[in-house]
């Protein structure tokens, strides 16, 4: 926003900070519990950031709607209305994400198991910080706006006849308009108008609802079939760079040696006198017998 009072830069920054706190808390807890940290876990913060920022947008949008509905209500009433609107959607998305990653801990791959543990726990902390820390930040930001304070310095912003004597640049930076008058409150967002007037009536049409049910049934059937066909595994060629020597090596290995079956290795667990010719001949005989 152009208004130096209605600007929400610090609010957005605290939303990102909330995701960072969730990552630190989850990583600290998992390391304290002795869960191995593998290189794939380094991707988790980007997932948490995406979900945390999404929750932040939902909270801010619900707060703005509550503010328009109950402009003169108390902070407690506004926050109650915000959580009533936002908490349900945030909770559902968090539960589905946590469930998906904790199911991933059943895998046989230790690296994937560690990644799912770290990420699933981070989602839990992200939810906790969104419902507590970010809600408190919303209230503090609202009190700043009510006090007519600058978004950066939190100093009171004077608006009136005295500001008309200041330069246009000063008024634009410190008030939000060159005229020296406070900016008008924002109206309803165009996207909200679109969903309310056009998209909502469209999807609630009885024929569209029937089509949605049929499409979802087809999607659900395809998902169940896909779950029965999926196989756990990994292609090592996908882990190498496109120009790596590993890729042609595995291509040739599959082309020329796949018919021989898996490699078999023999491990001798005792001390062996390799200098003794009789022992060496015995080992050679053992290998021939295995072949």
UniProtKB/TrEMBL annotation:
Q: Which residues form the SSD domain?
A: 1-140
For this protein, the parts annotated as crossing the membrane are: 9-38, 44-63, 83-109, 115-140, 207-226
The record's section on Pfam families has: Patched
- InterPro entries according to UniProt: Patched_domain-protein, PTHD_SSD, SSD
Where in or outside the cell it occurs: the entry states: Membrane
Q: How does it sit in the membrane?
A: Multi-pass membrane protein
Transmembrane as a keyword of this entry, yes or no, is yes
Annotated family? Belongs to the patched family.
Q: Name one GO cellular component term.
A: membrane
Presence of the UniProt keyword tRNA processing in the record: no
> What are the top taxonomic ranks of the organism?
Eukaryota, Metazoa, Chordata, Craniata, Vertebrata
Q: Which UniProt keywords apply?
A: Glycoprotein, Membrane, Transmembrane, Transmembrane helix
Q: What is this protein called?
A: PTHD3 protein
Q: Report the domain of life of the source organism.
A: Eukaryota
